[in-house]
Design a protein that fits this description.
Elements (H helix, E strand, L loop, with lengths): L1 H36 L3 H6 L5 E4 L4 E6 L3 E2 L8 E6 L3 E3 L2 E4 L4 E10 L9 E10 L5 E10 L6 E3 L5 E4 L3 H45 L6 E2 L4 E6 L3 E4 L14
Antiparallel strand pairs: 1-14, 2-4, 2-13, 3-12, 4-7, 5-6, 7-8, 8-9, 8-11, 9-13, 10-11
Length: 249
């Protein structure tokens, strides 16, 4: 009898020992399943759409030149520095604050010819740097130079051309003829005046032909207008906080 009782007790103890790991394993399995079912915050954040702002092609932005540029000394590839002169607004939001830096380079610099051909300057803008350091690549050209004297726009690419100085050349030749006539009249009377006028006119014309046409020169602080050639996309989260302020009604 005692032997039978001992066998029963031993069997019950073994069954309880086998069930204990299974009971401990069940909560762990449930926790693992719950962890797998819960969404990962990092993954959800990465999939969130990025807020963007767009500056459309054709937009014109007033700039102020930061350095002097002349076709007399400029070379292709030289850097050009400017900054925005007025805030640019899209959908009641300032997306380009005044004072944002604009960088470009000289694509072509041609001096005026001795006989014909006017000085020309071609500048393209390539990047925009916000006060925060956020840098955006862009394609921009000069649309107008309201702050430059005796210049005009040659074509849609943004080539600046010096105005014609044919009038100055004619005045130089006429001045030489007048001076020659005076000298000839003093030395040889009326006949001498005619000879002197002819010689002076030839001399004045020669001097005019030897001198170059006027150079295009843009002084520091010159007002220029940049035209955006293609859409520029901005990361709204990278734009300086000053650009996100809504315009007061």
């Amino acid at each position: 009898m005692k032997t039978l009782l001992f066998i029963l007790l031993s069997g019950m103890a073994a069954a309880q020992t086998a069930q204990a790991p299974a009971a401990a394993q069940a909560p762990a399995t449930a926790q693992t399943a719950a962890a797998q079912a819960a969404p990962a915050p990092a993954a959800a954040s990465a999939d969130a759409p990025k807020s963007v702002l767009t500056i459309p092609a054709g937009t014109r932005i007033p700039l102020t030149l930061k350095q002097a540029i002349s076709t007399k000394t400029a070379r292709e590839g030289d850097p050009v520095y400017a900054e925005t002169a007025f805030p640019f607004v899209v959908n009641e939001r300032v997306v380009i604050p005044a004072g944002t830096y604009i960088q470009g380079k000289i694509m072509q610099a041609q001096r005026g010819g001795h006989v014909k051909g006017r000085a020309e300057l071609l500048i393209h803008f390539t990047s925009m740097i916000y006060p925060s350091g956020y840098t955006v690549m862009l394609g921009g050209s000069i649309e107008n130079t309201p702050g430059a004297e005796r210049t005009s726009m040659k074509d849609s690419e943004g080539t600046i051309r010096q105005d014609s100085d044919a009038g100055r050349r004619a005045r130089d030749a006429a001045g030489g003829a007048t001076t020659g006539a005076i000298i000839g009249a003093v030395t040889g009377g009326g006949k001498g005046a005619g000879i002197g006028a002819g010689a002076g006119g030839v001399t004045g014309l020669a001097v005019s032909m030897l001198s170059r046409g006027a150079d295009v020169r843009l002084e520091p602080g010159t007002s220029i207008e940049m035209e955006i050639q293609r859409d520029v996309t901005l990361d709204a989260s990278r734009v300086s906080s000053r650009t996100s302020l809504r315009v007061e009604q």
